[in-house]
Design brief:
Elements: H1 2-54, H2 67-70, E1 82-87, H3 107-116, E2 119-124, E3 127-129, H4 133-136, E4 140-142, E5 146-151, E6 157-158, E7 168-169
Antiparallel strand pairs: 1-2, 2-5, 3-4, 6-7
């Protein structure tokens, strides 16, 4: 009789320890995935800012959907989570709505706006949802806003070799 009760106690002890060990293992995996996803969100902003420095301003809204970015999106990241903006020398946002207007703004207005742009900013707001931990508790991993600011380069426009030529689209 004594043996049967000690066998049951051993099984219960094993079950409790195994459950605790599995919970710790899944927590380690979840946090590793969280940190990996946060790093990937940071990489998305870096690549998006780089693309925005060399792509034409009117293509800004297409950049978040490019395969070179969507292939590295972390779980739950959507193109709407990525914002690209253009900044002047003081870091203030430049209104580029003239590039998206139908019909487009006048060439002189676009050239003036184009000349104001000195930096490109890519910003990602990302919220990570834990998989296993969200089953036990509603676990959400908030991440900081990832921001990458790079100096504007060509912005998709080939610069003339001499001052007498017009600016042409790439």
């Amino acid at each position: 009789m004594k043996r049967a009760t000690s066998k049951g106690v051993t099984q219960v002890e094993f079950l409790m320890i195994a459950l605790a060990v599995l919970l710790v293992i899944f927590a380690i995996i979840e946090f590793a995935l969280y940190f990996f996803s946060a790093q990937m969100a940071n990489e998305v902003t870096r690549r998006a800012a780089r693309l925005a420095t060399v792509c034409y301003i009117a293509d800004r809204d297409d950049i978040p959907s490019l395969p070179s970015l969507t292939n590295i999106y972390p779980p739950g990241f959507e193109p709407e989570d990525l914002t690209i903006s253009y900044l002047d020398i003081n870091g203030e946002e430049v209104d580029v709505s003239g590039f998206f207007a139908t019909p487009p703004a006048s060439d002189s207005e676009l050239n003036t706006t184009f000349g104001q742009i000195k930096f490109v900013r890519a910003e990602a707001d990302y919220t990570f949802r834990f998989l296993v931990l969200s089953l036990l508790i509603d676990a959400v991993g908030t991440t900081p806003s990832f921001i990458t600011i790079l100096p504007a380069e060509s912005l998709g426009v080939r610069r003339p070799e001499s001052g007498n030529e017009d600016i042409e689209d790439c």
